[in-house]
Description:
Structural class: alpha/beta
Strand content: 5-15%
Distance between the termini: 59 Å
Oligomer: single chain
Helix content: 40-55%
Largest sheet: 9 strands, mixed
Number of strands: 9
Amino acid sequence: MASSIGFIGLGIMGEGMAARLLSEGIAGSEDKPLVVWNRTPSKCEDLKTKFPSQQIIIKETPKAVVESCGITYSMLSTPEASKAVFESETGVLAGVSSGKSIVDCATLAESDMLRMNQQVESKGGRFLEAPVSGSKGPAAMGQLIFLCAGSSELFEEIKDNGLNVMGKASHFFSTKVGYGTRAKLVVNSLMGTMLAAFGEGLALSESVGLDPSILVEVIGQGAIQSPMYNLKGPKMIAKDHAPNFPLKHAHKDMKLACDMAEANKMEFSIIGQAEKVYREAREDKDLNIADEDFSAVFEKIHKESDSEFSKKRMS
Length: 315
């Protein structure tokens, strides 16, 4: 079943990505089924229900997925989850042999990607580091941006036969694994900082009596306009933080970026301060917003403010 496509991890991001492989005909046929595994098995059954006419095979272990597929995509939420799934006795690495290919789309530390690459190559496999820029909505719509490094041969094989249906762009930075992660951490740390700054500006507008909805409109008409502001602003005002990119994951990426900056002796104080705001928001037991969208940092901003508006909002 070497022509089968594997997918490990059907969470917030993986679910949409796997669905795109099926809906766009990359996998799911009789001769090229999609082989899946998830830590919560019901997610696999949900995918089969959503695509009843497609060939989807559920395996009991990540090892079994890799063994039955030529190329396996992996999208797991944290470095801890990735390491556990990758290195367990029935994990991804246990299924790797000569000719197998692993495409890891998670956002991890550079050291994690380097270790995984070495482990896969030592068993005769190929490894592509492919973290993505984008969240739940872009994943479902095939609008992710892939930031790749590692096997150029594998990248060329899937660039127009896999990545293209899950994303709107794919960039190859280097044959040296780690460069994709570096790019992803730069992007996500900037994104988190932008949203925290936007949250402070929005909270200030509310506290001085301005209509925040009009401020979102004004910002969208000028040089600082951002699709993220247009999307998140109205939801922040309405206290709608349904998770597309959980705050705990945003903070994880910002902390990794800060560590990368420190290791490279870079001045990083502005983004470092934003990381502190997200860390405190994540750890705030009263707010309990770690699993909410990262836009919920807005609630932490209001909680730490003493304006009459903020006090009323938080009451």
